Amino acid sequence: EVQLQASGGGLVQAGGSLRLSCSASGFTFDDYTIGWFRQAPGKEREGVSCISRVDDSTYYANSVKGRFTISSDNVKNTTYLQMNSLKPEDTALYYCASPLQPRYNPPGALGRSGYGYWGQGTQVTVSS
Predict the structure, then answer these.
(1) What integer is the mean pLDDT of 52-78?
(2) E runs forming strands in the chain
């Protein structure tokens, strides 16, 4: 059974940093693209970043470029999202996800429909 577990959320002041972790089990970790998504109250879930297992490329939403960094540790089966210079608008429930297929890049990289495995969310709250 595939399981994705997101953790590391919390309350931080604007300008601060957090590192989210997504631990994975039930599949060959380094074969699967991992994406981070977020959903703020009243808004749709949006793609934040992903790391590809096809070509090791990384992708970022424009809103987080230059502030967030995604990385993976294949020994620990964990993907990280380092979030710096946080803003109140980054407040959301953050999810990690992966496609159902190995060695696959979802269309558009951050398209929600390309991801079939989802973890539970971890809350990030940025105060002004």
Answers:
(1) 94
(2) 3-7, 10-13, 18-25, 34-39, 46-51, 58-60, 68-73, 78-83, 92-98, 117-118, 122-127
